[in-house]
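Private note to self, pasted from the team thread so I don't lose it. Backbone tokens:
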């Protein structure tokens, strides 16, 4: 009886000293936080060693994200008085910080599990907590069981669970925990049409004949560019011949993942071949989470070399940076790896890093992605919010839209593999993430001159199943959908979703140097660094005129920027047993550099060259 009395006396005191909304955590029952079905192609391989360590990332809610989003749209809208008034790093961090109640509750939970403050690494905004723990401890924390999963086709391994739980009192204070349910296979968006024989054996005989062809914008381009795409071809095609950037404080970045190494010797060979004035210039390498950049020619990465050669070749001498991020799944089940980020999706590791930089590159190009449906919704939302933070700070983020049309790039209904992984096994178009995030600019691919949708692979495009259509797309996407015959692909796509891509550029027959040899390569991995380089050139003009960087591009591209883009209306992006969507303004907007200079800066002359405005009209259509 006396003990009951003591509890009654102490209870009011305990309620006063514990954080609001908190009760002793050890006594709280776990409730399921997230459950997923393992995506097609993943099978259980076995149990991991109990002492294998993982970097467990705990995401706390960002209750004021809607306020950040409001700021982002205001500073990115060319018709708003705040256009270009980007936020500072500190201002962004204040807007995404969790409530103190969430911090207190999660801290108490972790303390009850034996963690001290020095065991935790917190993001500057305190919205992420990272703890290195053995698998056995993670299983205790999340009331779950981890397995090693194997991808049947690729042989990749991942350490994952399909369900995890949290104590009931911390549910509302934790948005997600990873690595848990994320089965994505972050991969380069590069066409499989990669010529593995040396360039000289294929097309070394192609030479300039003096003949030209007209691009969609009306400019003349060397006819040889229909066989080989070079720096000169792209400068001609997008009306940037003779422009040399010179502004201070401009910068461009390329992201590298999955042990894709950018080779300096290959870059010099590329410069000697296509950009002689850039020979002996190089790029800054920033290691993220211990990422390497092996300079052996045998280790040269086709994706990394393609990205740096064309992005830095087109934008030279703007300050270039290559980010090499460690964290390459798969988990190797027979090796005991040290604690680290090897189980996390590498772009989440990169996002944490880049958001901590005081001055990240003003334009950043990424040629990697996952199938959207393999990314848990909470994970996709959170990563997308981090891209919004970069945009609010004046950084332009561009992602490749993918190389498999509306899903798998297969137009044959008998062999297509666009099957949902929600247990219903329905056929549905599969967009790419992060390209489907509305806060990044998604870049599709074209080929030939005049340009059409690329046909050696299918440029990724369609509609997100996760993200609603943003307001800046309402006019164009509504017009596009209204142009389709009634019932077109009913049930196969989300007509209310964010449409991708936003823009397109050349994406095939790019001449690159890899491992000391010249090759032709294609994919939206080629289009994305190309478009990014032209954005960096536009930033150069703005900075030189005393204007801020462009930042989040999409609101401008869908409004005033339309006049500096040209549309094509030929081609399709097949997949999932269908011809996909025939192109229209949503999918194939192409840049025209000099008209964009007028629109973005008001500067009408470059040296002695008069700029001509080119206004194009959208004529979307589809064939079934």
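Design output:
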């Amino acid at each position: 009886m006396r003990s009951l009395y003591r509890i009654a006396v102490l209870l009011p005191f305990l309620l006063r000293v514990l954080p609001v909304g908190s009760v002793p955590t050890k006594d709280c029952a776990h409730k399921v936080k997230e459950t997923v079905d393992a995506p097609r192609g993943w099978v259980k391989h076995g149990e991991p060693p109990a002492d294998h360590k993982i970097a467990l990332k705990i995401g706390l809610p960002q209750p004021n994200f809607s306020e950040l989003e409001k700021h982002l749209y205001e500073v990115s809208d060319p018709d708003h008085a705040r256009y270009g008034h980007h936020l500072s790093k500190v201002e962004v961090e204040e807007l995404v910080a969790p409530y103190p109640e969430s911090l207190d509750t999660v801290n108490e939970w972790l303390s009850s599990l034996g963690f001290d403050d020095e065991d935790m690494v917190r993001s500057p905004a305190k919205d992420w907590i990272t703890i290195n723990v053995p698998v056995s401890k993670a299983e205790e924390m999340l009331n779950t069981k981890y397995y090693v999963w194997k991808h049947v086709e690729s042989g990749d391994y991942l350490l994952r669970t399909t369900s995890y739980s949290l104590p009931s009192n911390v549910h509302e204070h934790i948005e997600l925990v990873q690595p848990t349910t994320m089965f994505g296979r972050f991969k380069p968006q590069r066409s499989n049409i990669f010529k593995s024989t040396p360039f000289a054996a294929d097309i070394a005989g192609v030479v300039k004949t003096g003949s030209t062809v007209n691009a969609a914008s009306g400019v003349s381009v060397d006819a040889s560019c229909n066989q080989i795409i070079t720096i000169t071809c792209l400068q001609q095609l997008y009306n940037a011949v003779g422009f040399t950037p010179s502004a201070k404080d401009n910068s461009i970045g390329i992201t590298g993942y999955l042990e894709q190494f950018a080779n300096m010797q290959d870059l010099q060979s590329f410069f000697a071949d296509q950009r002689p004035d850039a020979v002996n210039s190089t790029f800054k390498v920033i290691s993220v989470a211990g990422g390497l950049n092996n300079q052996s020619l045998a280790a040269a990465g086709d994706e990394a070399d393609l990205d740096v050669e064309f992005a830095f070749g087109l934008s030279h001498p703007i300050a270039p940076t290559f980010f090499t991020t460690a964290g390459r799944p798969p988990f190797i089940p027979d090796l005991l790896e040290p604690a680290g980020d090897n189980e996390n999706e590498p772009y989440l590791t990169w996002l944490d890093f880049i958001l901590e930089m005081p001055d990240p590159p003003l334009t950043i190009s990424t040629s990697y992605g996952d199938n959207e449906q393999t990314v848990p919704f909470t994970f996709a939302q959170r990563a997308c919010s981090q891209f919004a933070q970069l945009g609010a700070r004046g950084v332009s983020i561009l992602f490749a839209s993918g190389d498999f049309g509306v899903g798998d790039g297969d137009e044959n209904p008998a062999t297509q593999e666009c099957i949902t992984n929600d247990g219903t096994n329905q056929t549905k178009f599969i967009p790419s993430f992060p390209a489907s995030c509305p806060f990044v600019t998604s870049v599709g691919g074209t080929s030939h001159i005049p340009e059409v949708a690329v046909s050696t692979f299918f440029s990724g495009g369609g509609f997100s199943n996760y993200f609603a259509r943003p307001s800046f797309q309402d006019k164009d996407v509504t017009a596009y959908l209204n142009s389709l015959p009634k019932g077109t692909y009913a049930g196969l796509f989300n007509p209310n979703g964010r449409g991708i891509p936003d823009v397109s550029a050349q994406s095939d027959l790019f001449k690159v140097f890899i491992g000391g040899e010249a090759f032709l390569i294609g994919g939206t991995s080629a289009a994305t660094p190309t478009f990014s380089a032209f954005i960096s050139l536009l930033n150069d003009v703005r900075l030189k005129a005393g204007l801020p960087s462009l930042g989040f591009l999409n609101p401008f591209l869908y409004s005033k920027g339309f006049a500096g883009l040209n549309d094509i209306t030929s081609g399709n992006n097949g997949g999932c047993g269908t011809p996909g969507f025939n192109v229209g303004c949503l999918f194939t907007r192409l840049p025209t550099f000099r008209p964009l200079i007028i629109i973005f800066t008001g500067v009408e002359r470059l040296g002695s060259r008069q700029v001509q405005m080119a206004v194009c009209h959208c004529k979307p259509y589809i064939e079934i």
